[in-house]
Amino acid sequence: MINALSIDLEYWWCNEFLTKYLPDKREDTLRESLNPLLGLLEEKDIRATFFVLGAVAEEYPDIVEDVFERGHEIGCHAYSHRTLYELDAPEFEREIERCLSLLSKYRPRGFRAPSFSLNNSTRWALDILQKHGFQYDSSIFPVRTNLYGVPKAPLGVYRPSKDDVAMHDPEGAIVEFPLTALRIGFNVPIAGGFYLRLLPRWFLSWGIGRVNKNRPANIYIHPHDVFPHVPITNLPIFPKFVTYHGAADSLIKLRHLIDRFSFKPICDILADVGSEAGLPPAATAVSAV
């Protein structure tokens, strides 16, 4: 079984837990945090999907070009990292249009909402994604948290209904590849990011192996997840824990997972899964550009 690996290419301060504590002047560590990650992928000959924040593409077009030249898929992560909860439909469409204008060379086919903020209260976003030619989304996390989650959503690839994103619609225009959760009485998130930093290596390996008995896993990470020097330290206990915990060891964990499991971009996984599952043509048409 081959799994999907994706990187949300964004600034370290794109973190809802840090919003109240951010300094006026922020030290940007994007290059420093991204380079070890790119180096590991190059060393292991792994290609991934990079969901690029429009603001990053605007400030660092050379970084996006380098990622693309290395053979990675480029996806859209909106422009400013404002969650869908904070936007109405016209505002979201402007975010999408601005990001797509910056990424037009790469023709992104996939979208990921900031902070996985696609749920039934923001399902209007599906119409806008369809309007702008997206073929797939990877924003739904089938877990329950205070910030995000659609706990009743399918665990595998499906087409979300515009009436209820937890329901499969065979005629749906957008393919959804949810972030990976493991069902053990309830859904446990093992998809990466904070969970990669939090969970022990043996549990991550066991969990992905168990998922792979039925379906590919969808693993994500941020550059700052593998960078233990995020330049903000004066934090209360919980935001500090969420921001820093496990960052010193997370690149080692990711290396272990890459050594044990196979990974490729989301577009390639959906092409394979769509063919095997008999999904309508839009799923099988997704390809790296």
What does this structure look like?
The protein has 289 residues and is of the alpha/beta class. The protein has one domain: Glycoside hydrolase/deacetylase (TIM Barrel), CATH 3.20.20.370. The chain contains eleven helices and ten strands. It has helices spanning 30-43, 54-59, 61-69, 89-102, 125-131, 194-198, 201-211, 237-244, 250-260, 266-277, 281-284, and strands spanning 2-9, 49-52, 73-76, 110-111, 136-137, 175-176, 181-183, 187-189, 218-221, 262-264. The strands form three sheets. Strands 1, 2, 3, 9 and 10 form a five-stranded parallel sheet that branches.
User: Going by CATH, what is the homologous superfamily?
Assistant: Glycoside hydrolase/deacetylase
Q: Which sequence of SSEs, written as H and E, runs from N to C?
A: EHEHHEHEHEEEEHHEHHEHH
List segments where confidence is low: pLDDT < 50 over at least 5 consecutive residues: 280-289
DSSP E strands, number? 10
